[in-house]
Amino acid sequence: MKPKVAFICVHNSCRSQMAEALSKIYASDIFESYSAGTETKPEINQDAVRVIKKLYNIDMNETQKSKLLKDIPDVDIVIKMGCNVVCPFLPAKYTEDWGLEDPTGKSEKEFIKTAKSIEDKVKDLATRIKNNLIFD
């Protein structure tokens, strides 16, 4: 059975949504991915949507929506995206913080940088899960 991974931050509109989308591309054979937050936004950050569509040809407006922590199933692994304030808590066997800055309100270049960083981290996470390096 594949482990379930939750990408969490406060609003579930930008970084955690990008992580969910990229996990579906690069790691769906290794783990199931979800994203959620303690608050939701009426829509996903449209700059993030545009960048993910441009770079990876995925329309997050069609495939994802902003969700609360209670809207997702119990998970095995929690990835915090990097909260400057209080990060939400979700029980899991393993938790790590990726410490990513929120690109909201910044240039497209910053969004692309964040997306590429998330892509690298998702691939690394998938490798670690596959090689049983997480639950040691």
Notes on the protein architecture:
This protein is α/β, with parallel strands linked by helices. The chain has one domain: Rossmann fold (3-Layer(aba) Sandwich), CATH 3.40.50. Helix content is 37%, strand content 13%. It is built from four helices and four strands; from the N terminus they run βαβααββα. It has a four-stranded parallel beta sheet, covered by helices on one side. β1 (4-8), α1 (15-26) and β2 form a beta-alpha-beta unit. α1 (15-26) packs parallel to α2, α1 crosses α4 and α2 packs across α4 (108-130). The longest helix has 23 residues, at 108-130. The model has no long low-confidence stretch (mean pLDDT 93).
The gist of it:
InterPro entries: Ptyr_pPase, Ptyr_pPase_sf. With 136 residues, this protein is of the alpha/beta class. It has helices spanning 15-26, 46-56, 60-63, 108-130, and strands at residues 4-8, 32-36, 77-80, 94-97.
Write the layout of secondary structure elements.
Elements: E1 4-8, H1 15-26, E2 32-36, H2 46-56, H3 60-63, E3 77-80, E4 94-97, H4 108-130
Parallel strand pairs: 1-2, 1-3, 3-4
Helix pairs in contact: 1-2, 1-4, 2-4
* Residues in β-strands, percent: 5-15%
Could you name the CATH homologous superfamily? Answer: Response regulator
* Average of the residue pLDDT scores: 93
* Tally of helical runs: 4
Sequence of secondary-structure elements: EHEHHEEH
Under CATH at level 1, the class stands as Alpha Beta
Spatial extent as radius of gyration: 14 Å
Biggest sheet, open or closed, and with what strands and sense? 4 strands, parallel
Poorly predicted sequence stretches spanning 5 or more consecutive residues? none
**Total E-strand runs:** 4
Query: Terminal Cα separation, in Å?
Result: 17 Å
Strand order of the largest sheet: 2-1-3-4
Number of domains: 1
Structural class: alpha/beta
Q: Which geometry do the CA atoms define?
A: globular
Give the proportion of residues in helices.
25-40%
Protein name: Arsenate reductase ArsC
InterPro entries: Ptyr_pPase, Ptyr_pPase_sf
Organism: Clostridium weizhouense
Pfam family, one: LMWPc
